[in-house]
Structure formats: structure tokens, C-alpha cells
Specification:
The structure is a single chain. This protein is of the alpha/beta class and 290 residues long. It has a single domain, classed as Dihydropteroate synthase-like (TIM Barrel, Alpha-Beta Barrel). It is 40% helix and 16% strand. Strand 5, helix 3 and strand 6 form a beta-alpha-beta unit. Helix 1 packs across helix 2, helix 2 runs parallel beside helix 3 and helix 3 packs parallel to helix 4.
Amino acid sequence: MTTAFRARPRFELLARGRRIELGARTIVMGILNCTPDSFSDGGAFVSPDGIQERLSKMAADGADWIDIGGESTRPGAAPVSAEEEWRRVAPAFRAVSELGLSHPISIDTTKPLVAARALEAGAAIINDVSALSFAPELADLAAETDAALILMHMKGEPRTMQNDPNYGDLLADVRTALAHSVTVAESHGVAPNQIILDPGIGFGKTAEGNLDLIAQLPALAELDLPILVGASRKSFLGKLFDLPVDQRGEASAAAHVGAILAGAQLIRVHDVKESVRTAQVADALLARLG
């Protein structure tokens, strides 16, 4: 019998004293955007009550990790100061403590000041959408604290990334850029078992390019590091199927199944309950590989 699927690589990730197995099943990372202008849920979770409700629901729905961010990275988004970004996310870290959540928490930031304060507040992972191109010092923080570090590919910056999302060879360019970021991270003392790669679905890519990256994830797996994919509610799904943001749930699930079957160990999602169930089906298919 032949199959289009292949066994998914397994890794042990170091995240501030935790050793987390990746690959045995899909890790579902729930998103908490403490922003007024994120593309999908901007303004929904900015009050203390809204933040607590969102955290409680994600935990109840089965999120493995929680990703907290205070600056929108949607196409065209304007940057905010480090102090403003921290002001937005600080209540979320207080709420995590008050709720007694034990989930690994990632801070979605490109700013060393925000990352440092988040690590002091209990974060275990730095999620850098610039893959150290904005602030290589984030690698120093990861090395000093043994925090995990997510390196995501993005073309340019949020304000300009969709102006000309074309490449000579998309997959080769993404793989080369991520390999360079890994080299930078390691030169700052970050160990390979602290690093996760993210191809940056929706960050400076065409709709077709995003599909190509998901389909060709096995080529990124050649870098021998775990892979995170975040396709949740992204605009390329809207362009493909003419769907508004609030109607992209099924399309997001389909994209994430494709990513899991292509080798992704983690998915970053808005709809946690549905995504957990989706991942369980994809994992069951992968388990048939033995």
C-alpha cells in the first residue's frame, strides 16, 4: 500500500525548564490579540474582563499553548511603541496568573523590552514575526532565559509586506531566509532545541503562494526543526473563496489539516475548540503511518 503522507518528525523543545514533545500530536496554540486593530478580532479582547473570558475559553476548549500579542501585524498595520504594546498585554499576563493557567505562554512581539517584561511575567516562548531581522537582541533574551524562539518569515514589514509579494522562487527564498535566521539565533547562543520555524502564511505572500508553502512544507522540514503554521482566518482564504473574516472557519481548518499532513507540529488558531478537533482527525490519519 502506498500513501501520500509521511511520518511527522518529532522533537523535544526546551522552553524555560519545560521539555515539550513536538510531533507526537499537533500542538494547538490559541491566539489572544490584545489589540484594537487586528484583522480578525481587533478590539474584542482589550478589557480585563474580555481578556479573562478569552483565556478561560481557550483553556476550556483545549488549547495547548496561548500566544499573547499587543501589536497588530495585519497588512498595512502601523507600529506602536514598546511601552504601549506592553500596556496592552500586561493585563493578559496578570490574568494568566490570576486564573492559575499552567499553559506555556508565548509573547508575540518584535521588541526586546516587551519580550523581557513578558518573560519576567512568566512567558516561556518568544514569537518573533521578523525572525530576528528587527531586533537580533531577542535571541540574546532567549539564550539567557532558555526561552523557546519562534522565527517567522515575513517579506519586509507589516506596512509594506503585501505591496509586492512576489519571489523568484518562493520556497527557496523562505527556506534560505529562515536558515539565515537560525544561524543568527545560534550565533547569539540559542540552542537548536529552542527554535521553531514558521513560514509566515499571509505575511508578504500571494494567495497562491500561501497554498504552495503549505503544500511544500516537507522541504522546510529539511532544516530539521519543528514547524508552526498559522493560516487561521487569513486573507488568502477570503480571496480564494470570497469569504469575510467571520466565515473562514472551515477554510482555516482545511488549511491546517493540509499543514499537519505535510509535517507541521504546531498550528496557531483563533477557533480553538474546532481546531483541536480538526488536529485530532489529522493526527489520527498520521498515526496510520506507524
